[in-house]
Design a protein that fits this description.
This protein has about 280 residues and is mainly alpha-helical. It has a single domain, classed as MetI-like fold (Orthogonal Bundle). The protein contains 12 helices and no strands. The chain has helices spanning about 1-15, 20-35, 35-40, 70-105, 110-125, 130-140, 145-170, 175-180, 185-220, 235-240, 250-275, 280-284.
Length: about 280
């Protein structure tokens, strides 16, 4: 109950500003679109109607159709599902792997810590696009490959934060008291350390969601990510770009959906960060 009250209090602080409220509204709308895409969509996103290609917006097709006569509104809604499934899966994997490696780095010997930190540096040294090209060349483009690429590139991000948090807390008096009372290492980590370091990590994850959405769209635009006919926002932009002289609507509405989603998640992530640590908001 106390945890729920703390979460609600944090949300109230985060949405207390105009930017936070706008970001939270967009956040909720995108999540709802992703969850209920089959209900919200007015058509099958993959249904072809080549006799009705590039149809303008109408009562039958709210945003018109693309070069294959597919309903743009339905494909945009299903694109939210792709974006959120990739973002949440990749961040969950990166968060889990980064947290484990960060805790190990904080507790291992100097040599073990150096090995993990060097691993983080090596991963971070590779540009995401170069890493994506290498992995796609081996495994081929797919949704799973996109998730793996993003999770791998973001693991050092979470790992360094987790390590810093553990180094700050591991010699805290309350943990020393637990050790004196005979608490096992597992109990100290899972009962005391993890709950205390998860706050900053969750905030970091919320701020990374728009980054992941943009990376996924970029990889799909280049043909390295989600494969057609799946309705990724990146593939929608790429398809529309190829037929820009025939209709500008597919490119514009797909780009606006991507821009609004990333803007909303960015605003909400920043508001959540300021709510968790009010000192940041005052400094800004």
């Amino acid at each position: 109950m106390n945890t729920l009250a703390a979460i609600l209090a944090t949300l109230r602080r985060a949405t207390g500003s105009i930017t936070g409220a706008v970001g939270f509204t967009i956040f909720v709308l995108v999540i709802l679109a992703a969850l209920f895409a089959p209900v919200i969509a007015t058509h099958d996103p993959d249904a072809l109607d080549v006799m009705n290609r590039f149809a303008p917006p109408s009562a039958a097709h709210w945003l018109g159709t693309d070069h294959l006569g597919r309903d743009l509104f339905s494909r945009l809604i299903h694109g939210a599902t792709i974006a959120m499934s990739v973002a949440l899966s990749a961040i969950a994997l990166a968060l889990a792997a980064g947290t484990v490696l960060g805790i190990l780095a904080a507790y291992l010997s100097d040599r073990g810590e150096r090995v993990i930190l060097i691993l983080f540096d090596v991963i971070a040294a590779f540009p995401s696009l170069v890493l994506a090209l290498a992995i796609v060349a081996v495994f081929g483009p797919s949704t799973g490959v996109v998730v793996a690429i993003v999770a791998l590139t973001m693991t050092p991000h979470f790992g360094r934060v987790a390590r810093a948090q553990v180094l700050t807390l591991k010699n805290a008096p309350f943990l020393e008291a637990e050790r004196i009372l005979g608490a096992s290492g597992a109990r100290i980590v899972f009962v005391h350390l993890l709950p205390n370091i998860m706050g900053p990590l969750v905030v970091l994850a919320s701020m990374d969601i728009p980054v992941v959405i943009t990376i996924e769209a970029g990889l799909s635009f280049l043909g390295l990510g989600v494969r057609p006919p799946l309705a990724s926002w990146g593939t929608l932009i790429q398809d529309g770009y190829q037929f820009l002289s025939d209709s500008w609507i597919p490119v514009v509405v797909s780009s606006l959906a991507l821009a609004l989603a990333t803007l909303g998640f960015t605003l909400f992530g920043e508001a959540l960060r300021d709510a968790v640590d009010p000192r940041i908001g005052r400094e800004r």
